[in-house]
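Design request, tokens follow.
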């Protein structure tokens, strides 16, 4: 700091000397703050070629193919909706006829979707019920988004019921919490029993809440693993319409608009296998965010996204998305990627070393155990990597040193507590 006054002195010699001194100090301090020195590890096997091309315009074009019905049809649908959603009074017989006409109409989505976000909770509930009665699997997408934002407890159960009727089992996890609320328990119980029966699950006579919770959890685990339900919607999904809707979600804008990105991630993660082919296609997008966000979705889908593994592999060679690719492949359970991941334990990129530590543990690579131990014991290593190495070692079996390290971080409160909680939950889910 004593050099600073000389930068403004009248003497050219003094100014020059001060600049040289500060330059030397800057270089010295930069050297002190370098990343931990990592020795080069084994070379990675050759990766598939990474081929990228612009995709945003293609997605926008596909999304635009979902067009509103013509003016005459719009008027008819609105008239149907006025009666079906009880916005105007009518006699029951007329209402039944109108409801049936609406449900049989291929463009029913045009009035049901906006009704799902109506200010009146009763209208939203009725709209959700109609979506479920329609049997149109394509209505899963607006219903999934409603699942995220519905604040009315009864309305949430109606949305879950509709999704379950349309063959989307991601809604199963929303039923057990409703068993504990007096205002929703009976309704949620009826929905649960109907969903179980529709999937061929034997429900005991007079089941307890514990019985229903256990049976629902078993179904939910199957959905998580496969992304396919034992119950399907009655109306086959329109692939062209599905493509248009998925393209709409995938072309979510880049940058600071976080809500649309999160909405897209929420919907796509809960759509099961229906979304995987379209998501896999975006992994070749030139636009970085069109590769990274879908990789996060595939990671969330887990083993249900196994068909996308070949499309993910080239991204291990992409510096911008390699971290997300490692995470996705480990969550999907692609053991074939292990030879590509081992060298990453010595990569210069801290985030890649961290993800590799976790991935090799999740994939059960016992051969990497000595190198994971090396990462854990290296006091010059970042805490992120050491925590990940401890987690990876515990995935491979009992390891007192790794467990002690995590316990120490928790006791000292010197690491991100939610991350530690999540890692412990992962271990518990693996029976460890």
């Amino acid at each position: 700091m004593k050099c600073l006054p000389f930068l403004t002195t009248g003497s050219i010699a003094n100014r020059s000397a001060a600049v040289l001194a500060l330059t030397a100090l800057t270089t010295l301090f930069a050297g002190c703050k370098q990343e931990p020195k990592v020795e080069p590890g084994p070379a990675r096997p050759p990766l598939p070629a990474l081929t990228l091309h612009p995709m945003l315009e293609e997605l926008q074009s596909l999304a635009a193919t979902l067009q509103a019905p013509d003016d005459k049809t719009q008027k008819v649908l609105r008239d149907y909706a006025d009666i079906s959603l009880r916005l105007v009074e009518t006699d029951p017989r007329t209402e039944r006829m109108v409801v049936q006409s609406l449900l049989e109409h291929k463009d029913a989505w045009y009035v049901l979707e906006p009704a799902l976000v109506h200010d009146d909770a009763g209208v939203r509930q009725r709209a959700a019920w109609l979506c479920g009665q329609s049997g149109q699997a394509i209505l899963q997408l607006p219903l999934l988004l409603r699942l995220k934002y519905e604040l009315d407890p009864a309305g949430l159960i109606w949305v879950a019921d509709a999704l379950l009727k349309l063959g989307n089992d991601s809604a199963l996890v929303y039923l057990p919490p409703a068993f504990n609320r007096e205002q929703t328990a009976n309704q949620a119980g009826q929905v649960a029993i109907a969903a179980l029966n529709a999937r061929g699950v034997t429900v005991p006579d007079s089941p307890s809440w514990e019985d229903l919770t256990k049976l629902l959890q078993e179904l939910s685990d199957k959905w998580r693993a496969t992304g396919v339900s034992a119950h399907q919607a009655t109306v086959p999904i329109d692939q062209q319409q599905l493509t248009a809707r998925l393209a709409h979600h995938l072309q979510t804008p880049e940058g600071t608009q976080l809500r649309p990105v999160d909405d897209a991630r929420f919907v796509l993660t809960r759509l099961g296998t229906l979304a995987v082919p379209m998501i896999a296609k975006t992994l070749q997008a030139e636009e970085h965010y069109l590769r990274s966000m879908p990789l996060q979705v595939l990671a969330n889908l887990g083993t249900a996204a196994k068909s996308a593994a070949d499309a993910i592999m080239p991204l291990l060679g992409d510096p911008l998305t390699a971290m997300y690719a490692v995470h996705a492949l480990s969550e999907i359970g692609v053991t074939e990627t292990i030879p590509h991941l081992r060298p990453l334990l010595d990569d210069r990129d801290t985030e890649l070393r961290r993800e590799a530590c976790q991935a090799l543990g999740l994939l059960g690579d016992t051969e990497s155990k000595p190198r994971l131990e090396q990462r854990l014991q290296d006091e010059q290593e970042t805490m992120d990597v050491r925590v990940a190495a401890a987690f990876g070692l515990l995935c491979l079996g009992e390891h007192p040193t790794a467990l002690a390290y995590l316990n120490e971080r928790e006791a000292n409160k010197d690491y991100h507590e939610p991350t530690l909680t999540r890692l412990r939950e992962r271990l518990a889910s693996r029976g460890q």
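Comment from the thread starter after seeing the answer: thanks! The mean pLDDT is 89.
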